[in-house]
Amino acid sequence: MFVLAMRSIRQRPGRFAATLLSAFLGAVIVMTFNAMHDTAGAAGVDDVSAESLTTAAAVVGGYGTLLVFFAVASTLTVNVRQRSEEISLLRSTGATPAQIKRMIVGESAAVALVGAVLAIGPAVLGGQALLDQFQESGQVAGSVDYAFGPIALSSGISVTLLASVAAAFLAVRRATKALAGARKERGRMRNLAAWGALVVGAASVSTTFAMDETDAAAMAPPAYGAILLAVGFALFSPVLLTGLLGRLRGPITALAGASGYLTVHNMRRRAAELSGVLMPLIVFTGMATATLYMQAVESDAIEASGLTKSVEDKNLETLNFVVVGIIVVFSCIMLINSLYAATSYRRREFGQQRLAGATPGQVMGMVGVEGLVLTVTGVFLGTVAAVAGILPFTMLRTDAVWPGDQGPGIWLAVVGVAAAATLITSLGTARGTLRTPAVQAVAVAA
Amino acid sequence: MVRRPRRETPVGSSEALRLVEVTKTYGDAENAVTALDGVNLSLPAGSFTAVMGPSGSGKSTLLQCAAGLDRPDHGRVVVDGEEMTGGSEAALTKFRRQRIGFVFQQYNLLPTLTVAQNTVLPLKLAGRRVDRARTEEILAGVGLADRMEHHPDKLSGGQRQRVAIARALVTEPSVVFADEPTGALDTRSARDVLRLLQGSVRLHGRTVVMVTHDPMAASYADSVVFLADGRLAGQLNAPTVDAVAERLAHLGDSVNDEMQAGV
After folding, report:
1. What is the CATH number of the domain that holds B213?
2. How does DSSP assign chain B, residue by residue?
3. Across the interface, do A352 and B108 touch by the CB < 8 Å criterion?
4. Containing domain of residue B190, as a range?
5. Is residue B3 part of a domain?
6. Which of UniProt's keywords are assigned here (chain A) (predicted)?
7. Are A442 and B108 in contact (CB < 8 Å)?
8. Within-domain flag for B251
């Protein structure tokens, strides 16, 4: 099976691109920040510098592990679903479920290893740049020498490898379960998880009021709360989407004609599948908006109080930006990958529409309207989650409820990125799909 | 672009489909496969024609070229007096949805739409008015009036194919093309489907062209056109199952004779 795994990677390197990219970026981040552990561990580093370095390494390193896990799991789930034909072929030729599991897990381990090895070079440079940044802002003494050592290497490779293997295991388990026809249980688990995320998120947001106003850590509860709320909304998104489309059926059909008509019916039936696309979209919008606005409020509050930023404040600021950056990149990869897969998976459906008399323009119109509905839903839910985190923090940190000094600029930029990623990916993929003549497109899966 | 009606035959003529010297080659110059080799065919309106031939004889290519799903390398295709010309896919789609209906072996119904929605989809796409009573009437015609709100995955293969036929007829096309419409059906469902196609010709004056490899299916047609190696290889009027099977079995030997006879 391992031989088969290697062969399938060599034959079709393209379909592992998204997994490789996730593993590579994850490994770069984990190694870059764990290099701060190596640097801090060297002899002659003062306490303040060491603390700055290890805090950064611990926080971002932890985030990184989680993100590698989610991103690889998302790309592999897509990958496994696209290969359902190949997998059922293997089953019919006599492969046991365990052998198929070993093949998929083996593939992802190999891809993760390649990603981690490729990441070493960029991580060495990235760590150097990060240390320079710390030294420039005064968070770390200028005398500290850069070290990229065993902690960075071992943690980078092991985290990437373990997260990938675990993600592959989950993805293939879900795929084989789906083949066996187990469905109901998942719905209940999903509802439980969704309510759990919403309750814990709301609780986390509420504890903001219990925090000391001057505590630098006051940003943590609302930020985590916003993420959890975003995840909860994402899990409920199929229900919300179905309801929303029921309301908007009239206007969408009136504005977009036959394309809009198809959009409404498609999306209502496929709402559950679309939550895979909505999840990264909501989390991205919620996270980016919440963190960036809270940081802006925090900076203004410090400025207003006439104090200069302490090393701790600066650490927090750097971390916030880094975390937002990482989440933005990973959510974008997940969004683009799942949207690409979901759209190219519909080659046959597009072919059927064309045979029924839809012009290429009408198909593109339908995909475009779908992208718009997705963007609006994702941005709306993400913004609600973000506001739920921003308001308590603003109330705590300033006298106002609404962060009035901050314009809508940040939010508009976040929305712009979300809309661009969604629309460009879905329309671009659909366009590629339409190049196949309709009759062939329909025959592919037949 | 689709040109303004360029009448190939006098107005009021009853020719539904005409192919003139249609040639189609696949592959590159070195290993080219000629799927259609100068095919001439003329089918009157209100006829039910079966196209038969062994695998690789070009019958599917013939259907796809005639239906505007594929473009011939040479030759002309005229549907209901109007020539199909090379243009953008959008132009070709508009040409098709006005004049041509399709029925496929794999039904090709959209899984997200109900039976009624699938049936009127071509009208919706063409921006035409959808009349609820008319939809009911059409679905009643294929025996599915009580299934209008079902989704295709709740229907049997035969029922799905009947929805596909209702969808093909809803635009009142000049020609309905059916590609192995009974290929995935059991004998009883196949008979229902064939009777429906036959009825659309006899009762409503539609024109149906059906590609099939099944002599039983072909026997429902008014005439059978045989195809071998991309060329026409004879025609059989008022076909019976046995006559069609007999003819098919000897198709290989008779190609040359028939060509000389100039079908």
Report:
1. 3.40.50.300
2. -PPS---SS-TT--EEEEEEEEEEEES-STT-EEEEEEEEEEEETT-EEEEE-STTSSHHHHHHHHTTSS--SEEEEEETTEEE----HHHHHHHHHHHEEEEETT----TTS-HHHHHHHHHHHTT----HHHHHHHHHHTT-GGGTT--GGGS-HHHHHHHHHHHHHTT--SEEEEESTTTTS-HHHHHHHHHHHHHHHHTT---EEEE-S-HHHHTTSSEEEEEETTEEEEEEES--HHHHHHHHHTHHHHHHHHHHHT-
3. yes
4. 46-56+87-261
5. no
6. Cell membrane, Membrane, Transmembrane, Transmembrane helix
7. yes
8. yes
Listed by number, the residues of chain B in 146-185 with a beta carbon closer than 8 Å to a beta carbon of chain A are: 151, 167, 171
d(C-alpha B111, C-alpha B117), whole Å: 10
Cβ <8 Å between A270 and B112: yes
Question: Is the Cβ pair B93, A358 closer than 8 Å?
Answer: yes
Amino acid letter for position B130: V
Query: Is the Cβ of B94 closer than 8 Å to some Cβ of chain A?
Result: yes
Tens-of-pLDDT digits for all 446 residues of chain A? 667 667 766 666 667 888 888 889 888 888 988 898 888 888 778 888 888 888 888 877 777 777 777 787 778 877 777 777 777 778 778 778 788 888 888 888 999 999 999 999 999 998 998 888 888 878 888 888 888 889 899 988 998 898 888 888 888 877 776 666 555 555 677 788 889 989 998 988 888 888 777 666 677 788 888 888 988 898 888 888 888 888 888 888 888 788 888 888 888 888 777 877 888 899 889 988 988 898 888 888 888 877 777 777 777 777 778 777 887 788 888 888 888 888 887 888 899 999 988 999 999 999 999 999 999 999 999 999 999 999 988 888 887 778 777 788 999 999 999 999 999 999 998 998 888 888 888 875 43
B130 touches chain A (CB under 8 A): no
| Under 8 Å between Cβ of A291 and A320 | yes
User: Which residues of chain B lie closer than 8 angstroms to A270, CB-CB?
Assistant: 112
Assigned domain for B41 exists: no
Of the candidates A6, A4, A173, A16, which has an alpha carbon nearest to the alpha carbon of residue A95?
Answer: A4
Name the domain count of chain B: 1
- Confidence (pTM): 0.78
Residue B119 placed within a domain:
yes
Which of chain A's residues have a Cβ under 8 Å away from the Cβ of B121?
Answer: 353, 356-357
Residues from chain A contacting residue B102 (CB–CB below 8 Å): 355
Output the CA angle A346-A277-A264, nearest 5 degrees. Answer: 60
State the Cα angle at A222 between A221 and A228, rounded to 5°: 90
